[in-house]
Amino acid sequence: MSEIHVVMHPRFPPAVDTVLRAMPGIVLHCPADTAGVVSALDDGAQVLVTFTWRPEFLRPSLKWIAGTGAGIEQYPLDALRERGVVLTTAAGVHSACVAEHAFALMLALMRRIGEAARNMTRGHWEALPGEQLAGKKLAIIGLGRIGEAVALRARNWDMEVAGLKRNLAQYQGCVSDVRGADQLGAVCDWADILLLTAPANPDRSHLVGAPELERLGAGWIVNVGRGSLIDEPALVRTLESGPLRGAGLDVTAVEPLPAQSPLWRLPNVVITAHNAGDSPGYGPRWGAIFARNLLAFGGAGEWVNRVPASGIAP
C-alpha cells in the first residue's frame, strides 16, 4: 500500500505526535494552525487526527477522522455519513486516567486542597479540617468506561455507589444500584457527591440545573464529562448562596474558561483545564488503536472504535 498522508491538528494530547512520527506507512503533516490543516487537506491528505472540528475541514480528500478524544458531539455526523468519511474515537484510551483525575477533584474538594493552595499563594497558615471519602454516597451519572472505572475504585474507598445509565439493559458492571435517566432527581436527593462522566446531550442542553443542585443540598459536584451538562449560572448561584459545598470542574461550558468567570474566584471551586485524560501514556495507547485502524483503512483489518453513524456502519 502506498504511503498515506495524515494531517495532525495543532492541538493534541501528550505524545500523539511522537507516536505518529515513528509510525511507518504515513506521511505526517503538522500545521501550526487551522488554515494549515485545511491547506494540507486540499493538498490531498486523507486522514485528519483531531479532537476539534471546523466546518472547513470537510474537504473532498478527507476519508477518515482519527479522533484523539472520546466525544463525538462536535462532529457533523450526517455530513460525514453522506460523504462516506469514517470517524473513529479514542474511547477507552484515557478511562483510568480520567477516573484518577475524578478522584483527585473529589479529594481536593473534600480535603479542601483548593483552599489550602490559595492560602499558599499569600503565605497564610490555616488548618482546614476536611471530610473523608470513606462512607460517602457517590452518584455516577454515565456508567460508560470512565464511570465504571470510577465505580471500581470507589468501592475500594468504602464509598456507596449508585449510577445512572440511559440503557439499563446494556449494563454489566460492578454497580448494583443502577437507575434510569429519569431518576436523576432521586439520586441527587440520595448522594453526597454527584459525579458527571456522561457525554454531552445531542442538543447540548443542561442535565444538571437549579432543581438538581437544590436536591443535592450540602453536597459536592464533580464534572469530568462535558461542560454543557451543568447550568453554570445556576451552579455559581448555588455555590455562592449555599447549600452546595463545592464543585470540581475539569470541563466548562466555554473553554478556555473566560477570565471574568466567577468560577475562578469562588474558594469552594477547583478547576483544571480539560486535562483529566492527559498523561505521558496517552500517545502510545492511542497509537495502538490508530495502528489497527490504519490497517483497516487499507482494507486489511477491522475498525476499532468506529462510530456507526459515520460512513458505512461496520
List keywords for this structure.
314 residues; disordered C terminus; seven-stranded parallel β-sheet; five-stranded parallel β-sheet; globular; 10 helices; 32% helix; Rossmann fold
Main beta-sheet strand count, sense and barrel state:
7 strands, parallel
* CATH architecture tag of the largest domain: 3-Layer(aba) Sandwich
* Fraction in beta strands: 15-25%
Structural class: alpha/beta
Principal-axes shape call: globular
Structure, described:
The chain is α/β, with parallel strands linked by helices and 314 residues long. The protein has 2 domains: 109 residues, 3-Layer(aba) Sandwich (Rossmann fold), CATH 3.40.50; 177 residues, Rossmann fold (3-Layer(aba) Sandwich). The protein is built from 10 helices and 12 strands. The chain has a 7-stranded parallel sheet, with helices on both faces. The longest helix is centred in the N-terminal third of the chain and has 16 residues. The C terminus is likely disordered.
List the helices and strands and how they pair.
Elements: E1 4-8, H1 16-21, E2 26-29, H2 34-42, E3 47-50, E4 64-67, H3 77-83, E5 86-88, H4 95-110, H5 113-121, E6 137-141, H6 145-156, E7 160-164, E8 177-179, H7 184-190, E9 193-196, H8 210-216, E10 220-223, H9 232-241, E11 246-249, E12 269-271, H10 282-297
Parallel strand pairs: 1-2, 1-3, 3-4, 4-5, 6-7, 6-9, 7-8, 9-10, 10-11, 11-12
